[in-house]
Write a structure and sequence with these properties.
The chain is an alpha+beta fold. The chain has 3 domains: about 90 residues, Uridine Diphospho-n-acetylenolpyruvylglucosamine Reductase, domain 2; about 120 residues, Uridine Diphospho-n-acetylenolpyruvylglucosamine Reductase, domain 3 (2-Layer Sandwich); about 200 residues, 3-Layer(aba) Sandwich (Vanillyl-alcohol Oxidase, Chain A, domain 3), CATH 3.40.462. About 35% of the residues lie in helices and about 20% in strands. The protein has a 7-stranded antiparallel beta sheet, with helices on both faces. A 5-stranded antiparallel beta sheet has the order 5-6-10-8-9. It is globular and about 70 Å long. The two termini are about 20 Å apart. The structure holds flavin-adenine dinucleotide. The site of flavin-adenine dinucleotide (FAD) has 35 residues, from strand 3, helix 5, strand 10 and helix 11. GO terms for molecular function: D-lactate dehydrogenase (cytochrome) activity; D-lactate dehydrogenase (NAD+) activity; FAD binding.
Length: about 475
Amino acid sequence: MLHAAEEIARSLGQDAVSYDDDVLEHHGHSDWSTSNSPERAVAVVYPRSTSDVSAIARICSRRDVPMVPFGAGSSVEGNFSQPHSGICVDFSYMDSVVAFHPDDMDVVVQPGVNWVDLNTQIASAGLFAPMDPSPTATVGGMVSTNCSGTNAFRYGTMKDWVLNLTVVLADGTVIKTRRRPRKTSAGYNLTSLFVGAEGTLGMVTEITLKLAPIPQDTSVAVVPFPTIRDAAAAATELIRSGIQLAALEIMDEQQMKILNEHGSEAVRRRKWAELPTLFLKFSGTTEGVKSDITRISDIVHATTGGRAPFHFARSKQEEADLWAARKESLFTMASIRPPGTELWSTDVAVPVSRLAEIIDWSKRECSKLGIFASVIGHVGDGNFHVAMMYDPKDAEQTRRVAQCVHQMMAMALEMEGTVSGEHAIGIGKKDCLRDELGPETIGLMRQLKRAVDPKWIMNPGKVFDW
Ligand SMILES: Cc1cc2nc3c(=O)[nH]c(=O)nc-3n(C[C@H](O)[C@H](O)[C@H](O)COP(=O)(O)OP(=O)(O)OC[C@H]3O[C@@H](n4cnc5c(N)ncnc54)[C@H](O)[C@@H]3O)c2cc1C
C-alpha cells in the first residue's frame, strides 16, 4: 500500500499525497456516526483531474490496493471508512464547475463541488440543484449515497437529478454513462448503477446535474401537535391531500426543547411549544403559496378539531428563522452531547400509511432505554431518523441501543419499508440490507461488482461483503 502511495506521489507530485496522522484520522473517522472502523488508510491522495484519478486507479489495481473515495466525510453509515486500509482518494481539489448551460437547465461539475456553493454560483440564473443533505456535502458524495434531504418531498432524490456521470473504474478505465439530453432510452441505465453505489463500483469524476427553477415565492409554517402520533397522522393527511408542499418535516418534543434551550440566537427569538411539531415549506407563485397555506391550514384544523395551532411566517425574516430551527436541529443536538457519549442516528422509510404507527412505536421503544432519544425526519417521504445518545463504555446500554435499532429495522421491513431511506448502507447496515433484499438480490449485486471490480478493490467492505 505504501509503495502504491509512493508511486502515486511520483506520478501526481509529492504534494498530492499526505501521510499526516491528523489527516488520516479526519478521513477515517466520523463523529456523526457509530459505524466507524479502527483501521485507517495508509495515505490520502488528492487528484486534480480525471486523468489523475485514472493514474491512481491503474497504480492501485496493479498492486491490488483498496481505494476509498472521500467527498466531505458527512455520510453517517461508515461509508468512507477504511476497514481494509488502502488509499483514500480525496476529491476536494476537483471542485470546479466545468460547464453551465442555463438554457438547458443543467450544469457539469467535478465531484468536489459543494452543493451550497454551487447554488450560490448559479442563483443569478434563477436555477438551483434541489438536493440538500449536510451543508458540507459534495456532489460526488451526494451521487454516491443517492442522498436527499428536506426538498426530496417535492423534488425526488439525487437519482432524479443526475443526467450523466464520468466514472473511473477500478482498473483506471474511464467511462461516460450517457450524454446530456434530458431523456434517453439508449442502452442500459448505467447512470443509475453508479448512483448510490457508495464508491464500490468506481470513482465519479464528472457529473451533469439537472437544475430546477428557483420558485417565485416560498413560505414556512409550523404546527405543534399533542402527540407524535397526531403529528404523523396529520402528515399522512397532508400528503394525501395532493397539495404540492415543498417540504414536510417532523421534530419531536425533545428536539423542540433543545431549540428553546440551545438553539441559535435567531431560533431562540421565539418560544417553541415543546410538543411534536410539523414544519411545512410552501413554494410556487405568490398567489399559489397563499392559497396552499389556506388550504393546508383548513386541513390541519379539520383533522385535529382545531387543537393544533397553525403558525405561518408573516415576513421573510420569520420564514428564515422558522426554517433555521429545522436545519440547525442536528447540529444543535450534536453540540450538547455530553463528553464520552456517542450519537446513534438511524434512518428508515416506510410506506406513508404506516408512518404514524412506526414513529409511535419507535418513540415508545426508545423511551424504555432511559437515555436521550429523539425523532426527526422527512415525514413527507415516509422517512425519519431516530437519534440516541449513549455511553459506548457501558456495554449493557450499548447492547440495548443496538437491539432497539435492529428492532426498528425489522419493524420497517415488516411494513414493506427500507432500512435506509437516504444514508445508504456503508458498513453499518450490511446485515439489514440482507434482511431487506434477500440472498438472490444481493447475489446479483455481487456479480455486478465482480464484473466491474474483479479484484474487489473499490471501497471494499461496504454494502455487502466479498
Ligand atoms: C448534519 C448532517 C445532516 C445530514 N442531512 C442529510 C439529509 O438531510 N439527507 C441525506 O440524504 N443525507 C444527510 N446527511 C448525510 C450526508 O450529508 C450525505 O450522505 C452526503 O450525500 C454525503 O456527502 P459527502 O460529500 O460528505 O460524501 P462522503 O461522506 O465523503 O462519502 C459518501 C460516500 O460516497 C463515496 N464517494 C465520495 N465521493 C465519491 C466519488 N467522487 N466517487 C465515488 N464515490 C464517492 C464515499 O466513498 C462514501 O461511500 C447528513 C449528514 C450530516 C452530518
